[in-house]
From TrEMBL:
<feature type="domain" description="Glucosamine/galactosamine-6-phosphate isomerase">
    <location>
        <begin position="14"/>
        <end position="214"/>
    </location>
</feature>
<dbReference type="GO" id="GO:0006098">
    <property type="term" value="P:pentose-phosphate shunt"/>
</dbReference>
<keyword id="KW-0378">Hydrolase</keyword>
<comment type="pathway">
    <text>Carbohydrate degradation; pentose phosphate pathway; D-ribulose 5-phosphate from D-glucose 6-phosphate (oxidative stage): step 2/3.</text>
</comment>
<comment type="function">
    <text>Hydrolysis of 6-phosphogluconolactone to 6-phosphogluconate.</text>
</comment>
<dbReference type="Pfam" id="PF01182">
    <property type="entry name" value="Glucosamine_iso"/>
</dbReference>
<dbReference type="InterPro" id="IPR037171">
    <property type="entry name" value="NagB/RpiA_transferase-like"/>
</dbReference>
<dbReference type="InterPro" id="IPR039104">
    <property type="entry name" value="6PGL"/>
</dbReference>
<dbReference type="GO" id="GO:0017057">
    <property type="term" value="F:6-phosphogluconolactonase activity"/>
</dbReference>
<protein>
    <recommendedName>
        <fullName>6-phosphogluconolactonase</fullName>
        <ecNumber>3.1.1.31</ecNumber>
    </recommendedName>
</protein>
<dbReference type="InterPro" id="IPR005900">
    <property type="entry name" value="6-phosphogluconolactonase_DevB"/>
</dbReference>
<dbReference type="GO" id="GO:0005975">
    <property type="term" value="P:carbohydrate metabolic process"/>
</dbReference>
<dbReference type="InterPro" id="IPR006148">
    <property type="entry name" value="Glc/Gal-6P_isomerase"/>
</dbReference>
<comment type="similarity">
    <text>Belongs to the glucosamine/galactosamine-6-phosphate isomerase family. 6-phosphogluconolactonase subfamily.</text>
</comment>
């Protein structure tokens, strides 16, 4: 657990943590692979990370999840990553869109799983007010199948899940896709998220709070970065 006194400290603390791991990976491997979540919370961290002095042309960036929207849609995670991270030094990074014009959702999932054959090094997760992470929502239909899937990505139907808003069709990372990463980070802000985190950490049922996959999935230790 990494707690910060201000959002500024949190922003740069998380950005430095991510860049340090990427730099270490690039010392030992030809390429580094980073999976990022969407939402408004991590955007400042991505903007700070974009200024890191890394060999960005050797970094592959992909998404933890995506709404069933085209990459240029203002509400897509792709656009958020491009506008916050793929700036400054990070313009040379290789970014993988999940969706594209003319691609069905099944084709998009297949493409994401093909890319996932290169295992991620770092996965950056978020957590919604309902305890969801990626596009896995509490008690959504198909959640069992997603949690048990051997594929890194699955399509998700969030019908009936208030936390999904109007974006019901999605593509999401699964525990199987998270497991290979050697570094997991959870970025959260605010007192309400801290109280929710306490409830999430106090149980082991991912159906109640799918964010529990962040620490229940065998593999790396979860690093949590929080500020008020």
């Amino acid at each position: 657990m990494h707690s910060y006194e201000s959002q500024m400290q949190w922003t740069w603390g998380a950005a430095v943590a991510i860049s340090s791991v990427l730099a270490r990976d690039l010392q030992h491997k030809p390429r580094a692979r980073l999976l990022l979540s969407g939402g408004s919370t991590p955007a400042p961290v991505y903007a700070a990370l974009s200024k890191a002095p890394l060999d960005w042309d050797r970094v592959d960036i992909a998404l933890v999840d995506e709404r069933w929207l085209l990459p240029d849609d203002p509400d897509s995670n792709s656009r958020l990553v491009r506008e916050s991270l793929l700036q400054n030094n990070a313009t040379k990074a290789r970014f993988e869109n999940i969706t594209r014009p003319g691609r069905s959702i099944e084709e998009a999932v297949n493409t994401a799983n093909l890319h996932a054959q290169a295992p991620p090094g770092v996965v950056v997760l978020g957590m919604g007010e309902d305890g969801h992470t990626a596009s896995l929502f509490p008690r959504m239909q198909g959640l069992d199948a997603a949690l048990e899937s051997r594929a890194a990505y699955v399509s998700a139907d969030a019908t009936g899940c208030p936390g999904a808003g109007k974006f019901l069709r999605r593509i999401s990372l699964t525990p199987a896709g998270l497991a290979p990463a050697h570094t997991r980070l959870l970025l959260i802000r605010g007192e309400s998220k801290r109280k929710l985190l306490d409830r999430v950490l106090d149980g082991n049922d991912p159906h109640e709070y799918p964010a529990r996959i962040a620490f229940l999935t065998p593999g790396a230790t979860l690093d949590i970065h929080w500020c008020p």
